[in-house]
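Look over both lines before class:
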Amino acid sequence: MTDDVLVKKVFNYICSSGGFVELTALGDSSPLKWIESKRECKNWLNRQGGGLFVVMTNGDLEGVRVQLKTKICKRYFAGESCPRTQKNCNSWHICKDFIENHCTSKCGRSHDFLDAKNEEKTKQLGIDKFPNSTIKKIVGWSLPQVCQLYLKGECSSDKCFYLHACSYAVQGFDCGCSLSHDLIDNHNKNVLKKFDLAPHKLLPIECVRCSVLLKKGPQAYRNSRELPLKTLTTFPEATDGSKSVAATTVAKGKRERSLSASSACSVQGPKNKNAPDTKEVFDCVLKEYNGSVSVDTIS
């Protein structure tokens, strides 16, 4: 078997497993079952495929993921139309919340890697043979994630392959907590490099933020416990060009606070006996308009 054929077989095997396979599983029925030791297996994966495979070691979790070198389109994420065609844009036109497993399916963005917006990219990457649910996992593994244990103060390992950053900082919000707010410190920059997403002149930090996964999903750390977060949702600006109503609410234990990305909670004007309070506005935007609506509409 030639190296190219074997690389393709290994790639398909890992993708069919959702984009990540523990090294111990490669010794069972995988195309690499002939390799006798874990060390030899890691050496082969690091040498072959031209960076297509990334070996991940973090405590007792040791495995390999596929490297797609793709990101989420910043314009599409912001609710804008992408000036490039689907064939020319190198990024996904997909709902980020969908990948993170917490979208209501009413956001208006694509939830299908096989639709007209993403089909060409999926074919180019050689993953079009898999169902949409599997592709979502593959793409999830190929994007950087915020470390769930770090957010709880339980991870400080320099070898952790997740980002150590405050969730607010990832979204571009100001925050005064004790967690890191620097996506390009030594640890985070090294993590982003492994995903081919380290910021540079042609890849500003705003584009990187669009592709950082925040909420725990099936591809997250297997030993991670659920975060004490009741809700963590961000909403982009309205697609009609008007100022949008956007809000983020985070509950930690019994303490809950709400934030506005565009001063949403002050749009009701002067107080009067019939004016809704902040919570009513927030609940209305969240429930009736799926998180984003123009000021004219909500007024």
